[in-house]
């Protein structure tokens, strides 16, 4: 796919726009670059697992409809750092922030 | 075979040793165990802990407690330790005037000066005045950025203070890049229309202007008198990543020296020393005073109240009036305590000078006989108070493989550090010093500003590590440890304690190096100091070089680094020093309980 820039990857399909906005804001506040790609797969596990594995930073977030999950490259498929359905705005913001904090090796926000 | 039990009641733990006496009079050690001491050492509350410990030790042998034919309790030294802490300086701000904190992501390095204006009053701003805008979290970052951009054409906006964690988000959307401080929780307590200076540090650095009194003076145009007044503010902002200082014309900040008071040391005469002069001087006066009858403090001063509280507390426990309770030793230690600054905006703290004191209370006699009678009444087993604690500990210590007479023991306990020397003829000389494990915990708790004593105790006990990824952690000695399974996210990036069963996460945000440094310093300040002090008192000719062997026993001898610290110290005097290994199996524990069983077999059973 030619993605060589160090960034957190966000793979989305029919993503809830509010969730996406807040996730992006969370990553941005922590100062880490991110890129968003629309995918065809109807499967959060796929989106999350592949985003983490394709990211040079080893961190990725999948959003499928109202579901969102944070993965790291080292984690086996189907396991997530965080997984939420229909999260609140601040929960979405934290998932983004924690993706960035995983890259920065900082403790996660609750 | 006749079964007898040795029971040692310590400040923190109760230890039991069960021995079987064969027909020929020889001993077989059968089992041992330790339990937390219930209640204060020497009180009837100890009985329930003793019974539990006996049941456990007998349970190991599949026997019940009533199969014992004799229980031997130590004649506990009538000393009880207690600790207290007093700060001797305090910083007071009479009008809220500063915020200094460490938001993880402020934005726009640099400093700015301006008049504080709330976001919703932007339309009242005047063109000629520089402003610092304060915005609450009810406004979104997009809206804040939009309004600042809109007004920056008309007004001189120099800086921004946010309530939410959104500094980078807002800054990225600003046309004019200005310093942005965020995560100021009580934003509406910032007084509007006052002049303020804000600063955000460069990446990887801490602030430079606001942590320097002349920096504050430059930014806020202060005169010499006012500059002197802001010095405590500058001091408390050292090391911060961002800060706000507000100029309050009628505000006042000062560092008070509290009337700490004098300590009176009574021996052949009364020596007095002021707490302000520091721990070193106090200890010097104490050493020169000779045999001490009592120690007290100046009435209505901090130290006076502190020593009185110790006496009254002990008095309640052992049901004696204060008059009979004498403090015969103290250990004073200099320390720093983070104390909340009264009048600050965001709960800032300032490191204040403090003195930690462990005191040892000597009473006429601990009511061990009462404990023995109560135990006898409940268990219907003959209970005897036998042997002085120090002698029993030395007897137990000699069972460590590789020891010879003459021998010194250091009993590193929870409440006191005790030392004894046994010479070739079996004569024992003993001493007790205030200050041990509990003082170490208190120092760790104070210096790290921990809310719970329990956390401090755990920091004292276990080595540190930092979880660097889901699969590995960096140990404090530099080593790496890898996990088979990914670790739980809650540990990620955190400093943890390596408890044998599970990792304990440290909730406070303190760097690993700082925790390790404070832990080691606290142990050195208490145990190395006390070990030397104790041995000097009882060594022949008060010369440490006349001692050749030291065996370390007691709970704190099990610590993972205290024995090594003492070994290093005593290596300077060419002394063989090491952690005891009672009966070759027990480690440094169980010395007194073992000594009690051993002394029974040693011939004293003829008169029982």
From TrEMBL, chain A:
Superkingdom of origin organism: Bacteria
Name assigned to this protein: Dehydratase medium subunit
Lineage, top ranks: Bacteria, Bacillati, Bacillota, Clostridia, Lachnospirales
UniProtKB/TrEMBL annotation, chain B:
Coiled coil (residue ranges): none
Pfam family, one: DDR_swiveling
InterPro entries: ATPase_NBD, DDR_dom, DDR_swiveling, DDRA, DDRA_swiveling_dom_sf, NA-bd_OB-fold
Record-annotated Diol dehydratase reactivase ATPase-like domain positions: 273-600
Positions of the DD-reactivating factor swiveling domain: 93-253
Name of protein: Diol dehydratase reactivase alpha subunit
